[in-house]
């Protein structure tokens, strides 16, 4: 059935499918997306697709409709049921088949979406398939004359848990206590399975799967959503706090004082551990990540490679360069040993291994990786994002050392200070990140820039 091009382009974005259920996404729409995706991967030789879903109320029905679209094109479907996104990537890698994960990640309850990958968890973005899917959904998905595929179910949670534990040696950990905020998302499903055999005492917070997010939004990138975990760490006397987003592909860290640890510092820590396994390897970092990351990688003899923001872009670059690891400012962490895909769980295990392998508290351990002060990502809702960006550039023209347009606009100001402004690919937002040598410098820059952006 042909569909409105405006609607389809609004929902099928740069590297995933995402929209409001009932208004932009329904069973008919995702059935067509499933059919178009099946045609895309069938032409590449695929014979089956694996499908998982998060805890949102709409996810089971939508994932089933997608599976119907796939089987109508002659491909089989393996339904893995409730899953984190990295659990779906595991299934795609283990089964060596394309995959679809039904989730809207950290977005509010009214949203849902699909993250698509080819066999071995290889990304599907606009340039690698989403544009083709968009065109077919707009024009109507052609029929298929062959036999319909089958739908089977398979639970992979235990296999996934064993696989990620095998990638990080946690056998020599001193006893640790970890406070974990699952945000009513899929961390409540995966954390018990992964942590159960380990010498880590888990103090659970909001582990009940609930796609209405009754306690707080499952987006730990927003400081307000970390407040409960910060208090919980102090109340429980935990050694570390871990916060997962809705589909648990991202993990944020809080130290024993209840203070957030920047994802850039986690990127540096994991990069050091991975380079210890393979000296001289390539490490990917996106352009919002602290400049402390490439500086550390170079110091350790590795090769840092800078890329734009977005999981499909960084995954493609991981494959092209053979990078051992990649990290983003948003707490997405990518591992070559995990088919180049991102896994918040693997990042958490690396941090636990580093912490539990020595005696210092986490705050002391992380000091070596927290070289610069940073604002974190600050979002502003604006009507004219290009106009506001130009106004900022004009205001800083006399102080600018260089301007980089790899993704949005990155402005270097000298003496390690820089900022980036970029429009979101998934929401009507303008995102700001600032880094400098001191917190006072960062605060001053943030105030000046936001006064212009929000004028």
UniProtKB/TrEMBL annotation:
Keywords, in A-Z order: Isomerase, Magnesium, Metal-binding, Phosphoprotein
Superkingdom classification of source: Bacteria
Molecular functions (GO terms): intramolecular phosphotransferase activity; metal ion binding
Domain Alpha-D-phosphohexomutase C-terminal per the UniProt entry, residue ranges: 377-451
InterPro entries per the UniProt record, alphabetical: A-D-PHexomutase_a/b/a-I, A-D-PHexomutase_a/b/a-I/II/III, A-D-PHexomutase_a/b/a-II, A-D-PHexomutase_a/b/a-III, A-D-PHexomutase_C, A-D-PHexomutase_C_sf, Alpha-D-phosphohexomutase_SF
Cofactor: Mg(2+)
Biological-process GO terms, alphabetical: carbohydrate metabolic process
CDD domains reported for this sequence: PMM_PGM
Annotated Alpha-D-phosphohexomutase alpha/beta/alpha domain residues: 12-131, 159-258, 264-370
Entry's family note: Belongs to the phosphohexose mutase family.
PANTHER family noted in UniProt: PHOSPHOMANNOMUTASE
Protein name (record): Phosphomannomutase/phosphoglucomutase
Native organism taxonomy: Bacteria, Bacillati, Actinomycetota, Actinomycetes, Mycobacteriales
Primary gene name: manB
